Amino acid sequence: MNDILIAPSVLAADFAYLQRDIEMINNSKADWFHIDVMDGLFVPNISFGMPVIKSIAAHAKKPLDVHLMIIDPDRYIKAFADLGTNILSVHYEACTHLHRSLQAIKAEGMQAGVAINPHTNVSLLEDTINDIDLVCMMSVNPGFGGQSFIENTYKKIKQLRKIIEANGASTKIEIDGGVTNENAKQLVAAGADVLVAGSYVFGSTDPSQTIQDLKKLTNN
Ligand code: DX5
Ligand code: ZN
After folding, report:
1. Atom in ligand 1 nearest the alpha carbon of residue 198
2. Is the pTM of this model over 0.95?
3. How far lies 206's CA from each of 14, 132, 209, in Å?
4. What is the CATH T-level fold of the domain 5-218, as seen in this structure?
5. Could you tell me the residue ranges of all domains in the chain?
6. Is residue 7 lining ligand 1, measured as CB closer than 6 Å?
7. One digit per residue, pLDDT tens: the chain, 220 residues?
8. How far, in Å, is the centroid of ligand 1 from the Cα of 141?
9. ipTM (interface predicted TM)
10. How far is the CA of 124 from the centre of ligand 1 (A)?
């Protein structure tokens, strides 16, 4: 089995101590920085924008996995590339021309991700799967950290894994929302490659240890 990746979500960090929390991720067993961008339109919440991400990028020593929860994301693809984004995910539900958006992300030298809401059927990705480096499968409704995991996600992971295999694609499956030590192993067993964890990591007394525990739990 491939190494299972852990991507702590910066949304759950303490923004008054952002550098401390970035260094914690740098020095932990985490693999990626998961960065949630919300516009108050696609989702009912606003998170943070370019100046904050620029500061994160200046200190982060691991790949930046940016999850755009914004309408019409094509407008910002270049801006996110310029900030140093490694993997850029746009929402399926926010893209009229998803294939074009994926090509535009790759043309800027980034890996192309597609995020899907809990109600979006994975079969809708069949025709673009070979162009997708990462599917960010939402296991909560996007917009907020700290929500409860939606159990239907396991079924969707298995369905998506079949589509990836049937098409000989190398797409990674990332699970985003409500990930804890209680569901991590089952998510990996269903076919997940990357686990995002926000409040579970930052709400713990020792976030670095929690990341290490998640890493160990999912790679055994
Ligand atoms: C939700 C975000 C998630 C969120 C995860 O809209 O996309 O990345 O930060 O947070 P937890 O792990 O607390 O559910
Ligand atoms: Zn996210």
Report:
1. 12
2. yes
3. 14, 34, 5
4. TIM Barrel (3.20.20)
5. 5-218
6. no
7. 579 999 999 999 999 999 999 999 999 999 999 999 999 999 999 999 999 999 999 999 999 999 999 999 999 999 999 999 999 999 999 999 999 999 999 999 999 999 999 999 999 999 999 999 999 999 999 999 999 999 999 999 999 999 999 999 999 999 999 999 999 999 999 999 999 999 999 999 999 999 999 999 999 8
8. 9
9. 0.99
10. 23
Is 139's C-beta closer than 6 angstroms to any atom of ligand 1? no
Q: Which two tokens stand for residue 150?
A: 């939606």
Between the CA of 173 and the centroid of ligand 2 the distance, in Å, is 13
Determine whether 39 is an active site residue: no
Does ligand 1 come within 6 angstroms of the Cβ of 200? yes
Nearest Cα neighbor of 27 from 52, 12, 8 is: 8
Please measure the distance between the N-terminal and C-terminal CA atoms of the chain and give it in whole angstroms: 10
Residue count (the chain): 220
